[in-house]
Design a protein that fits this description.
InterPro entries: Acyl_CoA_acyltransferase, Bact_Acetyltransf, GNAT_dom. This protein is of the alpha+beta class. 30% of the residues lie in helices and 30% in strands. Helix 2 packs parallel to helix 3 and helix 4 crosses helix 5.
């Protein structure tokens, strides 16, 4: 571990005790970025990724992404400012497409960094939130029944996932793409077959919501490596409530069942991703005991 990484780990530990040690991005094609600010060195790794229009990641963001893993050490806001300036200079002349973006993940509790990112045209797009392994909140009265989903529910689950994805395209990172339903249906089938932690809420036999969960452990190359502390975690992948059933306790009923299932002794807690601009999910998840750990920032389109 180099001195910059040691400095940054110390700063992260002071910011938030749940933050893990920093980790390098999985791509071997990352380019180093090194600057000096106020006599302090700051560094980072810049990764360029292009997704095919029909690929799963294309449903959730731009086709072309430049992502910076920033390591400003103890240089603070000045170091991050210098890194963003060097990043902008590095991008000059690249001519990115409109369907592009610059992204950076940073601890949610670092208000100084938030101010720097906002000043450089970035917006918070996604939060990774965590919850300790505590008993679920009381769901309160609800007219719905919740049961484990099975193969016969694929189409109903797909309808609910499509409705959630369409709503997210208005208030989050989802992007309308051809073939979206087929991709979402395939993800429903995968969740049923491999995690089995999928629940369906019904109101008098009519599907009105779903909760799709899984178990996950951070490992090099996945999206939570360097975001969560090592160990086994419960993952709330998707909670979807039919538009006409929102506000009626469906989400609470689903998560009461899901959290009871995920309340296992070996788990460090549960985590999920939500969109800060969504007028529904931040309030709901905070009441469920989740709090932001990381914020993923984006500038769209990318610098040119």
């Amino acid at each position: 571990m180099n001195p910059l990484e040691k400095e940054q780990n110390a700063r992260f530990a002071a910011l938030d005790p749940l933050l893990p040690p920093i980790a390098a991005p999985p791509s071997a094609a990352s380019e180093p970025l090194v600057v000096t600010a106020g006599g302090h060195r700051a560094g980072g790794l810049l990764t360029h990724v292009v997704h095919a229009p029909g690929a799963w990641p294309a449903l959730w963001g731009p086709l072309e992404i430049w992502d910076l893993t920033a390591v400003p050490g103890d240089s603070g806001a000045a170091g991050l400012t210098a890194l963003l300036g060097a990043w902008r200079d590095r991008m000059r002349g690249t001519r990115p497409e409109p369907d592009s973006g610059c992204t950076l993940a940073w601890p949610s509790r670092d208000a100084e960094a938030s101010a720097v990112l906002l000043a450089h045209g970035f917006a918070p797009m996604t939060c990774l939130a965590v919850r300790p392994p505590e008993p679920p909140a009381d769901a309160g009265p609800s007219r719905v029944t919740v049961r484990r989903a099975g193969d016969g529910d694929v189409e109903a689950l797909t309808d609910l996932r499509v409705a959630e994805w369409r709503y997210t395209s208005l208030v989050g990172t989802a992007v309308p793409r051809p073939g979206a339903r087929a991709l979402l249906r395939a993800e429903v089938v995968r969740a049923l077959r491999f995690s089995g932690l999928v629940w369906l809420a019904e109101d008098d036999g009519v599907p009105v919501g779903l909760a799709s969960c899984a178990l996950a452990s951070p490992a090099p190359g996945d999206g939570i490596h360097g975001r969560l502390r090592p160990g086994r975690w419960g993952y709330v992948d998707t909670l979807s409530v039919a538009p006409g059933a929102r506000g009626g306790g469906v989400g609470r009923a689903l998560m009461a069942v899901a959290h009871r299932e995920l309340l296992r002794p070996e788990l460090r807690g549960t985590f999920l991703f939500y969109h800060p601009a969504n007028p529904l999910s931040p309030v709901f998840w905070h009441r469920q005991g989740y709090r932001p750990l990381w914020t993923m920032w984006i500038r769209r389109p990318a610098w040119s």
